[in-house]
């Protein structure tokens, strides 16, 4: 089987994300939000997904893509067989204006001739209702109006409207601008406005990167991953989605095709840890606000994931779209919101700890009340003996998962620190008691003959999530104990080239076929923690090659072919990369002038 990688780059402005293929097609664009209906969705159906391409009238051309340095501005270069060439610059406007960020539902495409006067043809066919309807194109004086959506969709341009409407190729003799808007249209002069927006957007991203605490270790990868992570935060509420795509299969024929355009509670800890490393408090604070405003049920319980708005109901429906490469089913919504996943209470407590422990937050910002903290501790207490679906969201299996108890332990440790700062003796005693109970549960997962911890109480199956016992400091300074556990995980779950399986036993859909990339980065972190630093560095170098042409990483990797699978790019693969890079850099701890 040949190696498969995702051939798209993406742009975004913390309001929407678009995927752009090397053939200039926008194959995925949901507006006005990450979880909205798609305007372009050929990623999931070539016939019904619409199209937005800027191509020569013949197929004899070559193309390549690259990001403009330290930005989320994407260039696609097209060269024809006759030697003529042009460049398409795609970006989502984002910059500071009138004391706030300007991030409109506006996608801009700038087309520049580079060699000769190449002929191009612009096709723009947006759709609605998950591809059931093509929007009707109505020509106006300097734009095309697309009707059929609840909001106005408009393509404004300085080139001939007739050429676009009549599917006609034309010579590119000057720079052409295309501005696609959802809602408020562009009413300003197009050439000067686009150039101003482009320069302001580039300046914004480059200043953002400059204000980021980047380690010396693999800086370019860290910068790109940071930029990817940033545009997956929906700034209006602060929520961070797992991925901007839906139903990209974990492996061919697996039917493990999920909608990942939502915010998973369990990932708050890892994501906030990264933002803390990056030194970006703006994103931290937005995420804190998001967590504070999430609804609970009538028992005070959270669910595993929420919409970016904080909405709780994410009803899963199956669409009749063809699917990515014909892989079905195509799902919108995610029934995992109904699951019981009890690690999330500790996740929230650990995530909120910086509000109380970090001196950069002033007292007035610590708006969480004691009842809020007590509720989280009460939920840890209530669920200590309750079986759950675990972080891998088993749909027909409930167990007492080691990973859940790890976060009961970590959350209780965080609550102890919070109680210290609140001078609350009762909270302190409760948190200490829960910490000890969690330790007993974790130890009940121990397999003496392997000197390792199993996935859950009563099973001997290994699980990559227990790598977190090492990286989160459960073993303290006992390197030997941590390394024993790591060796058992390596024996069962390590694939070739430092790739790592989540688990190997059968689940609701059979035995997993692909490795999970964030687990591989957890493994790299664990190697660094047990002072196997040379292996950690070699592993990081090896894993860094499992990206696409733009250094973007997917959710899953096939160890046999190196193919990318799963939703793309996967935010938490990039989070895993960032945390591993920071961990290695901290262990190296040497002046940057030493090789």
Automatic annotation (TrEMBL):
Residues 218-582 form the GH15-like domain. InterPro entries: 6-hairpin_glycosidase_sf, 6hp_glycosidase-like_sf, GH15-like, Trehalase-like_N. It comes from the Bacteria. Residues 10-168 form the Trehalase-like N-terminal domain. One of its GO terms (biological process) is carbohydrate metabolic process. GO terms for molecular function: hydrolase activity, hydrolyzing O-glycosyl compounds. This is Glucoamylase. It comes from Cyclobacterium amurskyense.
């Amino acid at each position: 089987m040949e190696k498969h990688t995702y051939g798209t780059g993406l742009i975004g402005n913390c309001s929407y994300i678009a995927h752009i293929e090397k053939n200039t097609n926008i194959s995925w664009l949901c507006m006005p939000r990450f979880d909205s209906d798609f305007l372009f969705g050929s990623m999931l159906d070539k016939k019904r997904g619409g199209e937005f391409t800027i191509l020569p009238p013949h197929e004899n051309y070559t193309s390549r893509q690259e990001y403009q340095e330290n930005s989320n501005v994407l260039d696609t270069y097209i060269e024809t067989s006759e030697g003529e060439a042009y460049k398409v610059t795609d970006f989502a406007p984002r910059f500071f204006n009138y004391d706030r960020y300007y991030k409109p539902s506006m996608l801009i495409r700038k087309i520049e001739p580079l060699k000769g006067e190449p002929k191009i043809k612009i096709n723009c066919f947006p759709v609605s209702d998950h591809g059931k309807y093509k929007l009707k194109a109505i020509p106006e004086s300097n734009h095309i109006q697309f009707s059929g959506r609840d909001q106005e969709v408009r393509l404004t341009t300085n080139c001939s409207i007739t050429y676009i409407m009549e599917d006609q190729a034309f010579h590119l003799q000057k720079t052409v601008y295309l501005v696609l808007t959802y809602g408020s249209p562009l009413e300003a002069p197009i050439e000067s406005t686009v150039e101003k927006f482009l320069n302001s957007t580039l300046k914004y991203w480059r200043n953002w990167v400059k204000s980021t605490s980047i380690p010396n270790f693999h800086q370019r990868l860290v910068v790109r991953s940071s930029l990817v992570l940033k545009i997956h935060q929906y700034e209006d509420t602060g929520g961070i989605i797992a991925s901007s795509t839906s139903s990209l299969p974990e492996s061919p024929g697996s039917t493990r095709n999920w909608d990942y355009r939502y915010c998973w509670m369990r990932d708050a800890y890892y994501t906030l840890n990264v933002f803390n490393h990056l030194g970006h408090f703006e994103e931290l604070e937005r995420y804190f606000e998001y967590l504070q405003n999430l609804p609970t049920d009538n028992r005070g319980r959270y669910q595993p994931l929420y919409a970016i708005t904080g909405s709780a109901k994410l009803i899963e429906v199956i669409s009749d779209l063809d699917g990515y490469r014909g892989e079905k089913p195509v799902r919108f919504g995610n029934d995992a919101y109904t699951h019981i996943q009890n690690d999330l209470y500790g996740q929230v407590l650990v995530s909120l700890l910086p509000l109380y422990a970090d001196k950069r937050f002033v007292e007035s910002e610590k708006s969480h009340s004691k009842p809020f903290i007590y509720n989280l501790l009460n939920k840890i207490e209530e669920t200590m003996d309750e079986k759950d679906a675990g972080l891998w969201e088993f749909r027909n299996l409930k167990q007492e998962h080691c990973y859940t108890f790890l976060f009961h332990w970590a959350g209780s440790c965080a609550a102890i620190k919070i109680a210290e700062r609140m001078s609350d003796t009762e909270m302190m005693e409760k948190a200490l008691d829960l910490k000890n109970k969690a330790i007993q549960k974790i130890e009940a997962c121990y397999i003496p003959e392997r000197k390792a911890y199993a996935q859950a109480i009563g099973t001997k199956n290994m699980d990559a999530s227990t790598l977190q016992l090492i990286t989160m400091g459960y073993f303290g300074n006992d390197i030997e104990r941590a390394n024993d556990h790591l060796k058992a995980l390596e024996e069962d779950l390590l694939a070739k080239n430092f790739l790592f399986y989540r688990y190997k036993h059968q689940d609701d859909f059979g035995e997993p076929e692909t490795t999970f990339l964030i687990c591989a980065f957890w493994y790299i972190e664990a190697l660094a923690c047990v002072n196997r630093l040379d292996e950690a560095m070699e592993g990081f170098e090896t894993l860094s090659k499992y990206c696409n042409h733009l250094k973007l990483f997917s959710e899953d990797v096939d160890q046999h072919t190196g193919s990318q699978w799963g939703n793309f790019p996967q935010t938490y693969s990039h989070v895993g990369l960032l945390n591993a890079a920071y961990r290695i850099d901290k262990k190296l701890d040497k002046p940057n002038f030493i090789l």
